[in-house]
Amino acid sequence: MDKMTTFQPGLNGVIAAETKLSYLDVEAEEIVIRGYDLIELAEKQQYIDLIQLLLHGRLPTLSEKQELEAALKEEAHLSDSLVEILDKLPKGTHPMDALRTGISALAGYDKNLGERINLEKTVLRLLAKIPAITAGSYHLLHQQSIVDPDPSLSYSANFLYRLTGRTPDEQEAAIFDQSLMVYSEHEMPNSTFTARVIASTNSDLYGALTGAVASLKGNLHGGANEAVMHMLLEGGSVEGFRRLLLDKLSRKEKVMGFGHRVYMKKMDPRAALMKEALRKLAAEKDREDLLACCEAGEELMKEEKGLYPNLDYYAAPVYYLLGIPIDLYTPIFFAARTLGICAHVTEQYADNKLFRPRVHYTGPRGLHP
């Protein structure tokens, strides 16, 4: 094969798009978001600041930030008819399937569906509705009442409140906001690529996001945070967790929360940030035992396999100490990533080329009926 038709399994190393949105600089250990270091943004800014940054390439002024908050609060409620649709789902429905259904159904309520002139309004609508669908569908699946938004709370604090039904304190709200920021955008993972492929056909934003949800549901992309928390609970103690990991390694099982297609030989910088967040929450809630388990697992995997934690490894216990049900960890991942995906779809529309790769054929030839 010539250079243009070289087969790369999983498209590993293949450049699929040009983007001004983000870049993973592994050597510099930096996640670049529109020229900024994502970790520095997460330490100094808020999730809502990223909306303006990713969509328009600059951080918002105070007045622009206030306008964004107001626009999101206007769209924070779910219509009675959409709630009725979600309530009719079988009670055993996976939360990601409920989220996918909710986003798909939401398209029917958009009178300007597919109109590019109103694209930013659609993005803001989705950024408001997807957290509401994430929390609301979960409560309905568990035969609980939907938690209505509290207009006095910020965007991220409101999201956490609607998930747990409990008003978060200042530190909890700040840590949850930080977690949304580090999940918000990460170059070209499978779900973002899926959305860009769908958008390249001129499909609408709801369709692109619906496909992205289906992609993120797969356990090789999303779901690692949930698996990590189940392992931590199963281990129960430092020694118990070490034994659990060693047993998995002896059976050559994949240990979720470690390794990354891009961060092969270094720790995911987002994981380091969430590790510090876990340290703060563990001290506040007297759960240093959970932090100790995580640190023991981190050290063991480094010694045994040369693997480092990814974001999901430390985000999982952070969400656990915030009181979030484990089944919601992956839907929250998607709710946060909605911003990055919408920015990618917007960029795809602006300079579109239909994705149409070729294959490396390995089947028979020359057969006759």
From TrEMBL:
A GO BP annotation: tricarboxylic acid cycle
Top-level taxon of the source organism: Bacteria
Active site: 260, 312
Keyword check for Transferase: yes
Record field: catalytic activity: oxaloacetate + acetyl-CoA + H2O = citrate + CoA + H(+)
GO cellular component: cytosol
Pathway entry: Carbohydrate metabolism; tricarboxylic acid cycle; isocitrate from oxaloacetate: step 1/2
SUPFAM superfamilies: Citrate synthase
Signal peptide annotation: none
Keywords tagged on the record: Transferase, Tricarboxylic acid cycle
UniProt feature coiled coil, ranges: none
Database matches in CDD domains: citrate_synt_like_1
Molecular-function annotations in GO: citrate synthase activity
Family note: Belongs to the citrate synthase family.
Protein name in the entry: Citrate synthase
Organism: Halobacillus litoralis
Gene transcribed to yield this protein: mmgD
